[in-house]
Specification:
alpha+beta
Amino acid sequence: MKDRLNALTELIIGAALAIHRELGPGLLESVYEACLAELLRLGLKVERQKLLPVQFRDQVLDCGYRLDLLVEGEVVVEVKCVEKTLPVHLAQRLTYLRFTGCTVGLVINFSVKWLTRDGIRRVVNGFPD
């Protein structure tokens, strides 16, 4: 399982790097999200803007939360275009992992000069990796 998740995140990061190299920073999140979804669809099941209901007590609430991308039903990917990734982005990702039951999440911030150094944050089982 761990090897499969590592392989999936490597593919996702590789696709993000290719997009960032070609397009650079400065576009809207929706552009990077669409490009990433299309690249990944070449060999993976990708769900874009997947509804994420909130379970509260005995009710399921549709509060409008959506995952940017869910890859192979196992990796939650959040696409950002912000000056800096903040703790709130990490908290949001942890909540999404908990609600989906997934163990791996990525936040990819395309608005940085060096994506590999400053733009990719990963969480495994709720702990920064």
